[in-house]
Amino acid sequence: MAKRNINRRQFLGEASCSAVGSMAFLSSVLNLGAINTLAARPHILDNPGDYKAMVCILLSGGCDTHNLLVPTETSQYNAYVATRGILALQQNPTPPASAQLLDLNFNNAGNTYAVHAGLTRARNMFNAGDLSFISNIGTLIEPIANSTEYNSGTKKLPLGLYSHSDQVMQWQTSVPQSRSAVGVAGRIADLLQDMNSIPEISLNISLAGKNRFQSGNMYNEYSISNSTTASNIGFTPFSSSFGDSGFRTMIRNNAVNNMMEQQYSNIFHKTLGGLGKTSNDAMEKFRIALQNVVPLTTAFSTSTLSQNMKKIAELMSVRSFLGVKRQIFYVTYGGWDHHDSALTNQANMLPVLSNAMAEFNDSMAEIGLKDNVVTFTISDFARTLTSNGNGTDHAWGGNQMVMGGPIQGGQVFGTYPSLALTNNPYNLSSRGRILPTTSVDQFYAELALWYGVSPNDLDYILPNLCNFYSTSCPAPVPSNYMPIGMFS
Q1: Mean pLDDT calculated for residue range 269-283
Q2: CATH of region 35-230+301-469
Q3: How far apart are CA 83 and CA 91, in angstroms?
Q4: H-helix segments, 236-303
Q5: pLDDT, average across residues 329-347
Q6: Where are the domains of the chain?
Q7: Among 72, 91, 173, 175, which one is most buried in terms of CB atoms within 10 A?
Q8: What is the reported pTM?
Q9: Residue 255 confidence (pLDDT) above 70
């Protein structure tokens, strides 16, 4: 047998692909901290003052995105109405004042679309070139051409398909064949954390607590709330009702610091102490940075999502005090599991999402970062095209939004599928579960390359990526790599 010469990067790339059929090996690749050192590559910097950030909005619960973006070409719209039944949004309702759909300024070879009337500001951003849609995207291990391949048993399917816990995990880890503890943003941080000059400040910041998306092998997220300010961050001081409140606070803080700085022999005690000290150090850095926040003139709504987006904008405005060139933020907007009252719930919730995104977009222009930030939505899955009576149930492929100056705005990326129940190669059931035609890996790969991840490290960030472009996934980028086209 002839010997085959193979370099380390080719080995990691091919191992990642072969690991699709080997859970043990895949788990090892994703969870061994040593891989971070092996995968290290020079980072891509546009200029010395380069700053880039991503903001991920999880629409938790599984958003019915087939009513978020609706085809309006006559035959496609008729199929939509026939399938959706009582859930279908009307193009020309009576009276006209009760508009349910807002047309987009888009026409690609006769393919036209509209958005839910609750997305007024998102529609305006689309028409202004600040926002686009990614159609029929979902979690995939490998390409599945049609329902025949899906039913053949020859294709690998995501673990726990149609399950909330599994599908939302897979959107965050992009490893649908495993319940991985390490997320896409976490692996990016493992590679790029050293681009930021203050090691105590995590590249990943969460306004939704602990999450899998930002959990890495070496670095994890730093969690704050939208009410965090320079005056309330950290330990709460003793009430002034105590005559010696200052002394009590000092004793308490000294005791906590002493516990964190002890040299422990027990590995669990040592790890906990180290995490506590790192968090405490980061807390002080954040306190200093937050003292320099200048109030934004952009008006934000009172919703929790809008206030979370406002806090993100404030943190970006003091990025120089945090010593960061790269940041990833994570927020959630829950309540999308609409098995009942789907139309009423969407009418109430979509304006909240639309307003929060538009307000954030305006704030980016205010602080001069509109061309440095990409914001995108993700969700567990889309929902069945047919109604269960008053709502919809768990499905698969759906539509998501991506926003920001760096993207090509006013576009509908990907392949929008037929929504007909019959003679539809992408329909997987009588309920209308749609097979994704764009993988989460393809989306994240394009974001990662824009963000500064080396092409050589894409297979570490996204172990299944080579399944969509090449059987061997050679570095730097597979020759048949076909980007979605979000960036010009």
Answers
A1: 57
A2: 3.40.720
A3: 15
A4: 245-261, 267-290
A5: 97
A6: 35-230+301-469, 231-290
A7: 175
A8: 0.85
A9: no
